[in-house]
Amino acid sequence: MEQFVAALTIFVLAIFVGFEVITKVPPLLHTPLMSGANAISGITLVGTLITSGARLTLTTEILGFFAVAMATANVVGGFLMTHRMLGMFHHK
Amino acid sequence: MPQEEALIKLFYLAAAVLFILGLKGLSHPRTAVRGNLLASVGMLLAIVATLTDHRIVDFRIIIAGFAVGGLFGAILAYRAPMTAMPQVVAVFNGLGGGASALAVGAAFEEALRGEWIEEITIQFSSSAAAAALVGAIALTGSAVAFAKLQGVMTERPILLPGRHAVNILLLVVCLVLSTWHVIGYTPFLFGAAPSAAADLSRGVLADDLRQGFQSHGLELSAELHVKTTGENQWQITDAGKKETYVVWLEGGELTVHGRSALPFWIMVVIASVLGVLLVIPIGGADMPVVISLLNAYSGIAAAGHGWVLNNSVLIVAGSLVGAAGFILTALMCKAMNRSLANVMFAGVGMTVTTQAQADDIYTGRVKSASPEEVAMLMEGARRVVIAPGYGMAVSQAQYAIQDLAALLESRGVEVEFAIHPVAGRMPGHMNVLLAEANVPYEKLKEMDVINPTFRQTDVVLVIGANDVVNPLAREADPSIPIAGMPILEVDQARSVVIIKRSLAPGFAGIANPLFAADNCLMLFGDAKDMAMRLVAALKET
């Protein structure tokens, strides 16, 4: 219960921070915002690492491999693409 | 808390701060590149800290996953053309959601085998179900969005009969299976004589019970732990075989049960089907909403994964992304004056106007012009505004259009770009394409900023846009799918030139009276081709 309340506190506060920060992003940068946020959602990789490195059963190893590969593609591709996109925005 | 664990958590805190600073950096093009770098450093910190976790004993799978995923992601990010950006974002999005679904499944499988945690709490199993449900919908929904955007399947809505009923039914089935999964699914394996119960309470497995296991084909290792979990209830953990059994004394008989994640996995499969069914009735031009929403889902799935593992950085990062996705979804809906429910379920995008109605509006009123005539018109203008739409992306016209804009500016004409929030297939799509073609970002004006300036504009060049400049949107008639949608008020300019292949209706399926307006000229042809011919015509004068 204690853990649950702590997690809930973090969750609710993070949503408020998210709204505050993201409403300040101008429409000009909505595509990079989307692709950058997307890369951040690849944080799920952190969870997949523990699961796939514990070497428990074949099932979890197979699941773990796909989860790590998918999340890594999300993280690496997301950040690189956002970087590439942002490099194109320039002013006079 | 052991010292190492505290240290890892401090790294997670640093990562969460960097994510917030990174997103904050995206509030201006000058700080955006740095913001993205900060966020990626945060990610690196979180990953490196996690790799020191003592529970990780084998790095082979991790390295293989890094190599395969990293290579795929990097190649896609570098090789994809900018016009394909919406579908690439859809792919990454789906992969993130799918990874969350698989990872919580793996965590649950491990927990069932008595690893990691003492008992499977309600927080653990219910957040696992939520993360898997949302993650699976994000995976297959993004796959369909990709197929539509890439042209693998039709962009038009596919409306199956009874689709609302089917979707609700599937969702209910998912919820029932999730509830079953939370309560715990323990399939019956075999029954045994009650005499073994006393031994179980002393932590010993009696010989006849052991034989019962063997005669039912269940091998036991030597590392057995018997635990009393309640009155007439025991748990046998086989550490060698990584299996857990539950034994109950009921009605004078011992029953031995396995533990299974079957309801969970069936739920994941049904949620995957639901993801497909939810996206196929949504048409191409509504993709900005769908992609934003799927983006929010992948964030929510990551946050749910954080609840499963009690991991703060996953919760923070997931919530940030969820917030970003929902804000963009709301903005896109507002820009179309439609509710999210209307976008998701109404199946907008079927042709509404009949040919006869269209003829009625267009016949005898549409004026067609040649590139030379339009070039002369622009040559004499003081201010030209270019309003691009998805057609510009389709014909890859952005470079030719920038050539045209630069040429006009060199002749002293003021040129700006009018960007409608839902022009294209994802939020901000037009901005990225024009930035790619070297248009300085100061010239890319939002709708609210540019609309008051159309009265002082001599020529508006509409390229590959239709519904976002359709004056019918000002009508209150509910039979018009775009009624009340804020539009670029291009018809207020002195002249409007529209580059378009034909008079075919746009995505909303309705005719556009702008094409028949007195101050409007049609330049029929491909966007890129026409932009190049305009440049050529201007150079000759």
Strand content of chain B: 5-15%
Q: Using only CA atoms, what is the Rg of chain A?
A: 17 Å
- Uncertain segments of chain B of ≥5 residues (pLDDT<50)? none
What does the main sheet of chain B amount to? Answer: 6 strands, parallel
Q: How many distinct beta strands of chain A?
A: 0
Describe the protein's architecture and organization.
The complex is a heterodimer of chains A (92) and B (541). By secondary structure, chain A is mostly helical. Chain A has a domain at 28-86. Helices cover 78% and strands 0% of the residues of chain A. Chain A is built from four helices and no strands. Chain A has helices at residues 2-22, 30-41, 44-53, 58-86. The longest helix of chain A is centred in the last third of the chain and has 29 residues, at 58-86. Chain A is flat and about 60 Å long. Chain A starts with a helix and ends in a 6-residue tail after the last helix. Chain B is built from 19 helices and eleven strands. In chain B, strand 4 (243-250) and strand 5 (253-257) form a beta hairpin. Chain B has helices at residues 3-25, 29-51, 60-79, 85-112, 122-150, 163-183, 197-201, 207-215, 262-279, 287-309, 312-335, 340-345, 355-362, 371-379, 390-394, 398-410, 429-436, 447-450, 527-540; strands at 188-192, 224-230, 233-238, 243-250, 253-257, 383-388, 414-419, 444-446, 459-463, 495-500, 520-524. Chain B is α/β, with parallel strands linked by helices and 541 residues long. In chain B, 50% of the residues are buried. Chain B has three domains: 58-183 and 262-345, no CATH class; 188-257, no CATH class; 355-540, TPP-binding domain (Rossmann fold, 3-Layer(aba) Sandwich). The interface between A and B is large, with 80 and 118 residues.
